[in-house]
Specification:
The structure holds 2 protein chains of 2 kinds.
Chain A lengths: L8 H21 L3 H10 L6 H8 L7 H19 L1
Helix pairs in contact in A: 1-4, 2-4
Chain B lengths: L1 H18 L3 H15 L6 E9 L4 E5 L2 H13 L3 H8 L3 E3 L9 H9 L4 E7 L5 E9 L7 H24 L6 H25 L3 H15 L3 H9 L6 H4 L3
Antiparallel strand pairs in B: 1-2, 1-5, 3-4, 4-5
Helix pairs in contact in B: 1-2, 1-6, 2-6, 3-5, 7-8, 7-9, 8-9
The chains are: A mainly alpha, B alpha+beta.
């Protein structure tokens, strides 16, 4: 069982990589931050918009569960637009 | 005096800019101010249409009737006000019964008791277009003098509206807010059910929803909807490990 926001010595490298990847994806999509946050909230997201902003600018670590939700929100939003 | 009343209108618009919590409220105030310029007896209804890049449109009306008229126009996809906003040119229809443009829409407007329409473009920026629309129940309600007044008013609104568009640039369309609220309610309900069934935590339950969405290539919200409606938990399949 992982503690909330798990990152051991190995985990933090992985987390940083994921964070960079997600941030880069966000920049490419041209999604407004507020739109992403609203959708992420709809999926059960638990962090505030300002923290999301900081995360996407690689300035904040957040729990891995939230990272997965953000990634999912981005994917669904992008897919939704091409439908 | 004309000069004074114009200053007052500008002041009111600036106050509105400062006091409105969101873009829709601001636009509504703008429509109301516009209608009050044309007399306080309520014989003229004013609406303001703003279309932004990506098709997000906001409509504000000084009356309920005006809102219906604008929505009708949207359902036809065309009309005098949309033309004024999109092509940035003034449209004046002195008598709806003697006009052949936009016939479907004008028919619907006539049934609402409208006899004359004036639509004035409001210059904004490169990413949006806007127009002020006035509906009256009498033929030829808009004289050359009124047209001049409203053109001046539209020019004054242009500056305030451009500021508002920048200020509220990232405002979410109400539709998206409603969709998010609805989705959240369903996801929360599904999470509660999964937690109860598995005696698990919230994070785990969310993860189960995500895995199920990924493996079936469906939206998380749809998976949650299924669960709330009584479908089996997707977690059951994953317990094979």
């Amino acid at each position: 069982m992982y503690p909330y926001g798990a990152d051991g010595p190995e985990g933090s490298d992985f987390a940083a990589e994921v964070r960079r990847g997600t941030a880069e994806r966000f920049r490419k999509t041209d999604l407004p931050l507020a739109k992403l946050w609203t959708y992420y909230y709809g999926l059960g997201g638990g962090i505030d918009e300002m923290s999301l902003d900081a995360y996407l600018h690689e300035a904040l670590d957040i729990p891995s569960g939230q990272v997965a939700l953000i990634a999912m929100a981005m994917t669904e939003l992008i897919e939704g637009e091409t439908l | 005096m004309a000069q004074d009343s114009r200053l007052t209108t500008l002041d009111r618009m600036q106050d509105l800019l400062l006091e409105s919590p969101g873009f829709p409220e601001f636009l509504l105030g703008l429509a109301t101010i516009s209608a009050s310029l044309l007399g306080s007896d309520g014989t003229v209804t004013c609406t303001i249409t703003v279309e932004r890049d990506g098709g997000a449109a906001t409509v504000a009306s000084s009356t309920e009737e005006g809102r219906r008229l604008d929505e009708t126009q949207y359902s036809f996809g065309d009309g005098p006000c949309l033309t004024a906003a999109r092509q940035q040119r003034l449209v004046l229809i002195a008598d709806l019964e003697n006009d052949e443009r936009w016939s479907d829409y004008l028919e619907a407007a006539l049934q609402e008791g409208v006899r004359s329409v004036l639509a004035v473009p409001i210059p904004t920026d490169a990413f949006s277009h806007a127009g002020l629309n006035c509906y009256a129940g009498t033929v030829g309600a808009f004289t050359a003098e009124t047209v001049g007044l409203l053109e001046q008013h539209a020019a004054a609104m242009s500056r305030v509206l451009r500021i508002a568009l920048r200020l509220h640039g990232t405002d979410i369309h109400p539709e998206h807010l409603r969709a998010a609220l609805k989705s959240r309610a369903v996801v929360d309900a599904a999470v509660s059910l999964i937690m109860l069934q598995q005696h698990g935590g919230r994070e785990d339950a969310l993860q189960i929803l995500q895995l199920a969405a990924k493996s079936s290539n469906r939206r998380m919200h749809d998976i949650a909807t299924d669960i709330v409606r009584g479908a089996g938990l997707p977690g059951a399949e994953q317990d094979e490990r």
